[in-house]
User: Fold these one by one.
Assistant:
Number 1:
Amino acid sequence: MNTHSLNRRAWLCAAASALALGAGSAAHAQTYPTKPIKMVVPFAAGGGTDVLARVIGEKLAAGLGQPVVIDNKPGAAGIIGTDAVAKAAPDGYTIVMSLSNALLTNQFLYEKLPYHPERDLTLVYQVAMGPLVLVVHPSVPAKTAPELLKYVAANKSKLAYGSYGLGAYPHLAGAHMSLTQDADMNHVAYKGEAPMVQDLIGGQIQMAYASALQAKPHIEAGKLKAIGVTGERRMSTLPNVPTLAEQGLKDEAYRLTGWLAVAAPAGTPKPIVQRLADEIRKATQQPDVQQKVATMGFELKDSSPEAFAAAYKAERPVWERLIKQSGAKLE
């Protein structure tokens, strides 16, 4: 047999293999899902991300016809859980509901991140924006944002602020305040939002950025004091709390908001990614979900894989600049 015939046979075999693989992927996508889906939450149970995951997961299960099991894997600023998903099989049966820190900002903060979010993950759906409320322990004498800035500047090295992970928005915003006021505040990182809020109530830390879900009951009970909210608009669930920007804190750090989103391992077939996105969108359009999310202080997004990718690309340099300005760098 001549060389031409051998090459032609090799080409035909390769083409047949590719077609078979493509057909297999298409068939898999058409029958998906055929077993339970695991939604990893890389933070502790009880926090805002966990609650949102359970709300969306319940509706997603109904839409997909298979159980959605929430798997909390807290620790290391969302790295442990997100890395587990990045290394999972790209078949649509392991996804992550996470925050912007684990899906975007950690790549600028950590020198040795075990995954690269833009290489190892597929963006599925940006579920909600997460404006936060800046709360302080009642012992802090400030009532407004300008008063708080003066207080932290006057108490250099005496105050501590909390976050639910290194590189998360509460860490970056707190670091920015400490830096601009030359306050030298101590940063305390927790494995989740719930333990952070409990320590704030107990007085172990003096201030933190928290979700309305966690903070509102304690604000109403007088156990915490609300200073202001992040982002450009007031929260519908805390309408009497002004934004930090309204109070004169115009810095980029105070106007940004983090977000909550769903991602899957890189290489997950596009039809499966689209099916997940479609079902998540349906879930967010249901009135009971919208009411619950508004109560939590989140703002639902009308998203898609393409819209999420565009928003990610636009925000990426802003977060990168903020982290560089903070001087934060971790191994």
Number 2:
Amino acid sequence: MDFQQCRDYCLMQLQSSEDFPFGPDIYVYKVVGKIFAILSENLLPGAPEKVASINLKCDPTEALMLRQIFPAITPGYHMNKQHWNTVLLDKSVPDNEVKRMIEQSYQLVVNTLPKAKRPPLSQS
């Protein structure tokens, strides 16, 4: 997935909103005011062009497993390293896996919301 595909997929989640609390280049996705994804593009050392990355919430055990499977998945940058992963969108992680991780991050956040505030069709 590239930057725009990730952006579109985050916005497809029920009651998802896009916000810029950390500046114009950091795209933050929330559900009922709670962050489930942070998308940005950065120039990495030695890279000729910007590379997109997304921070996603994850079950701690699965987060460790994903980091072992995919070199492009690392502990969450500027986030709780136990509960968040950063996924480098360099095409090394299959699109379906990135989508699954976005959905899971969204659902983990929705599950923490009071039942009255949860999106009506969420899987809880």
